[in-house]
Amino acid sequence: DTGVSQDPRHKITKRGQNVTFRCDPISEHNRLYWYRQTLGQGPEFLTYFQNEAQLEKSRLLSDRFSAERPKGSFSTLEIQRTEQGDSAMYLCASSFTGTGLSLYFGPGTRLTVT
Amino acid sequence: DQQVKQNSPSLSVQEGRISILNCDYTNSMFDYFLWYKKYPAEGPTFLISISSIKDKNEDGRFTVFLNKSAKHLSLHIVPSQPGDSAVYFCAAFTGNQFYFGTGTSLTVIP
């Protein structure tokens, strides 16, 4: 297992369409996070899972956004009725609650809404 | 509100010299701090972390210093190399969440 993977790497969609992104975390990691990043900003928290349970969602996450992590393995992030303001890099990260603390990011999915 | 701040958007350093990247935070409940490096079109790469019970952690050319009374941490890179040119983010952790700064773009000049 070489790290966190995300698919697709790039997505161009028209406004109003639905998109779904997938994240495969590092296999032994029980925590999974979704972040959004725009130019000149740091990663912005969207939501967090511990195993299959979604424990926290940002207030910034509108009801057009939904995330799942069935069976506590991979996760999907869906955006319904996309808007131009949704254009950003969507980052997935995973973490293990053991000795010390770290958070490992995937390569991200670049979403462009036209 | 921005709980983690990186007030220098950019920094240029000569190859071989020390790079010092700074980060300030406001929440005294943060119990872990991390530094990440990011190249364009890639996800952030974890560099080094420090627990709030320590004041220094070293890993090769990278050293992180934590000053809890000043709510300040810094990343020292010695010696700096051209391959270190990237955007560096500091992050802080409490509860279940990580909070990120806005990043500092480091350019190491050969």
How does this model look, in words?
The complex is a heterodimer of chains A (114) and B (110). Chain A is an all-beta fold and 114 residues long. Chain A has strands spanning 5-7, 10-13, 19-24, 31-37, 44-50, 53-57, 65-68, 75-79, 88-95, 104-105, 109-113. In chain A, strands 2, 4, 5, 6, 9, 10 and 11 form a seven-stranded mixed β-sheet that branches. A four-stranded antiparallel β-sheet of chain A has the order 1-3-8-7, with no helix packed on it. Chain A starts with a strand and ends with a strand. Chain B has 110 residues and is mainly β. The model of chain B has no long low-confidence stretch (mean pLDDT 95).
Average predicted local confidence, pLDDT of chain A: 92
Overall strand count of chain A? 11
Q: Which structural category fits the helices and strands of chain A?
A: mainly beta
Mean pLDDT of chain B: 95
- First-last Cα distance of chain B: 38 Å
Report the sheet-strand fraction of chain B. Answer: over 45%
* Anisotropy-based shape of chain B: globular
How many separate helices of chain A? Answer: 0
Approximate strand percentage of chain A? over 45%
Q: Strands, helices and their partners?
A:
The complex is a heterodimer of chains A (114) and B (110).
Chain A: E1 5-7, E2 10-13, E3 19-24, E4 31-37, E5 44-50, E6 53-57, E7 65-68, E8 75-79, E9 88-95, E10 104-105, E11 109-113
Parallel strand pairs in A: 2-11
Antiparallel strand pairs in A: 1-3, 3-8, 4-5, 4-9, 5-6, 7-8, 9-10, 9-11
Chain B: E1 4-5, E2 10-14, E3 19-25, E4 32-38, E5 45-51, E6 56-59, E7 62-67, E8 72-77, E9 86-94, E10 97-100, E11 104-109
Parallel strand pairs in B: 2-11
Antiparallel strand pairs in B: 1-3, 3-8, 4-5, 4-9, 6-7, 7-8, 9-10, 9-11
